[in-house]
Amino acid sequence: YKKIKIQMKGLLLLALASFTLLSVGPILLLSPQTPLIRSSQNVNYVSEFENFNFKYNKQYQSQQQYQYRLQVFTENLKYIEQQNKKSQSFTLGVNSISHLTREEFIQTYLGLNIINYYPENISQEIVNVEDLPDSVDWRTQGAVTPVKDQGQCGSCWAFSTTGSLEGANYLQNKTLSAFSEQQLMDCSWLYGNLGCNGGLMPRAFKWVASHGVTTEDKYPYEAKSHFSCKNKNGEFKISSYQEIPVGDCDALAQSVSQRPTSIAVDASNWQSYSSGVFDDCATRLNHGVLAVGYTSEYWIVKNSWNTSWGQQGYINLKRGNTCGLCNSASYPVA
């Protein structure tokens, strides 16, 4: 009886030891950097992140970097899902910059530098709202070049400037040419612009009025700041530029009815915009874009974050002074 009892005790201890090893074994095999997947929802976020990386060719230098970007992407995706459940006039979605934090996005892409600037050439043109067309879209007229990509450089101001210049060139010469953002970045430092660190469209127009602007194929974009100007001259000339009176949305509508117009906006909440009429923004100007048209409901705005963002690179902003778009608008005078 004692012998049988001892054998049973031994078997019990062996079973307990085996159960303990089975319990802790999987945890010991996990890397400290490997997240514990506790739900199908987390699995879905990982799957969405992998799809995002494949679609936009994102690569990471280390496992730690991968995990960090996964965490950021997951938080952004949760925010997108929460916002899309609300009754809104717009939808949010994943795009090529969904792996960035809000702070990274603002620091990298919003390069408008409006500090210590005061309008100099305010338009005195009389506005007659009744004479304005109900809708305008310069894209259908052939006056707008394809959407460009500023990359990780705060050069939005240069893209807004070239957009207006391209439209002015089309209206004057009936030809559409892509003009050089890099030339404006490299050459207009003395006018107050700072390359990838920000700038302002009127300052760029002022430089172009003195030097002209060349085409993008002759002075390609590099998404980098250079302190030397390779070519100070350009084929397309302007005589001056005009600025819309601050906050005058009727004057802006009149300008847009006549030409693509450079505008400054508060784009702090634009990171995940996908479609619809956007109105979720303040009026602290930090981004330069191009107004290419309007309807009775919204402004049609061309951005410079490639076609994966928004509506093939465009955003519709609710009519009125949404995002402060009527507060700093300007255009070249050929």
Averaging pLDDT over every residue, what do you get?
Answer: 89
Give the DSSP E fraction (strand runs of 2 or more residues): 5-15%
Number of domains: 2
Task: Give the helix/strand class.
Answer: alpha+beta
Oligomer state of the chains in this structure: single chain
Enzyme class: hydrolase
Domain Cathepsin propeptide inhibitor: 49-105
Function: May be involved in extracellular digestion.
InterPro entries: Papain-like_cys_pep_sf, Pept_asp_AS, Pept_cys_AS, Peptidase_C1A, Peptidase_C1A_C, Peptidase_C1A_papain-like, Prot_inhib_I29
Structure write-up:
Mean pLDDT is about 90; it is low at about 1-40. It is built from eight helices and nine strands. It has helices at about 1-30, 40-55, 65-85, 100-110, 155-175, 180-185, 200-210, 250-260; strands at about 90, 135, 240-245, 260-265, 275-280, 285-295, 300, 315-320, 330-334. It is an alpha+beta fold and about 325 residues long. It starts with a helix and ends with a strand. It folds into two domains: about 40-85; about 100-334, Cysteine proteinases (Cathepsin B, Chain A). Strands 1, 2, 3, 4, 5, 6, 7, 8 and 9 form a nine-stranded mixed beta sheet that branches. Its EC number is 3.4.22.15. Belongs to the peptidase C1 family. May be involved in extracellular digestion. GO terms for molecular function: cysteine-type endopeptidase activity. It catalyses: Specificity close to that of papain. As compared to cathepsin B, cathepsin L exhibits higher activity toward protein substrates, but has little activity on Z-Arg-Arg-NHMec, and no peptidyl-dipeptidase activity.
